[in-house]
Amino acid sequence: MSDALILIVEDEAEIAEILESYFVREGFRVICARDGTTGLAHHQSLRPDLVVLDIKLPGKDGYEVLATIRRRGETPVIMVTALAEDMDKLQALRIGADDYVVKPFNPLEVVARARAVLRRTLSRGAEHLLRLGPLTVDPGAYRARIEAGAGPVALDLTPTEFRILAHMMRYPGRAFSRGDLVDACLPEGAALDRTVDSHVSNLRRKLAAAGGEGMLEGVRGIGYRLDAPDGR
C-alpha cells in the first residue's frame, strides 16, 4: 500500500501542494491535476490506486469527474471539498464516492482515510474477479483467461481491449452503444466509431481463438453485447 499512486485533482495550488507533501512523506506516489479534464486524462492513462477529488473545479466539476470514474471502474475516490451541506455529501456518495472530507481539514486525516479506503479495497480484491461462463477477468492484475478443454488459455489483450472486456463483464447481457464504450474505456481523443469497431473486432477474434466463440456479438442498430455462450 505504501507505494500506491494517489491522484489529487485540486485547483487550489496551495491545498494540492500540502496534500502532495503529506502523501509523499507517508511513502505514497502522487500525481496532481488542476482541473477535471486533466484529472480524467491522468486517471485513464496512469490508473491511480486512489483519487482525492475536489468538487469545484474548472471545466468538468468533481461530480462529473466522479461519475466518469465510476463508469470506467471502481477506483476508490475521496472527495475533499469546501461544500459542507448534507445534500452535497449525499450527492457525492450516491454517485459513488468512498469518503467525503470537508475543508478546512487536517492533511494527516486525509492520508489516514486514504489508507483506510485502500485497505478496504485490497481486502475485497479477490472478490472482484469477474466471471462469465468460461471467461475470468482480474481487473487489478490486468489478466484475462478462458477455461478451455485443455486448461486455461490466457488472453493477450491491449490495454484498451482489456478495458472494454472488463467493462462489459460487469454488465453481462447488456447492449452497449459505441458511445458507451468510448466514454468508459477509450482514452480522450479516440472517440471515432470505427476506432471502437476495430478494438471490439480484435477482442472478438482473440476470444474466439481462445474458446470464447460467440461471447461478444454485435447488436444491430445499437452496438455490442457480451454474454456467456449459453446466454446465462
Structural class: alpha/beta
Q: So what's the CATH class of the largest domain?
A: Alpha Beta
What is the element string, with H for helices and E for strands?
EHEHEHEHEHEEEEHEHHEE
Number of domains: 2
- If you compute it from the alpha carbons, what radius of gyration comes out, rounded to the nearest whole angstrom? 19 Å
Distance between the termini: 37 Å
CATH architecture level-2 label of the largest domain: 3-Layer(aba) Sandwich
Mean pLDDT equals 86
Helical stretch tally? 8
The coarse overall form would be elongated
**Major sheet: order of its strands?**
2-1-3-4-5
Beta-strand content: 15-25%
| CATH superfamily descriptor of the largest domain | Response regulator
Poorly predicted segments = none
What is the total tally of β strands? Answer: 12
How can the largest sheet be summarized? 5 strands, parallel
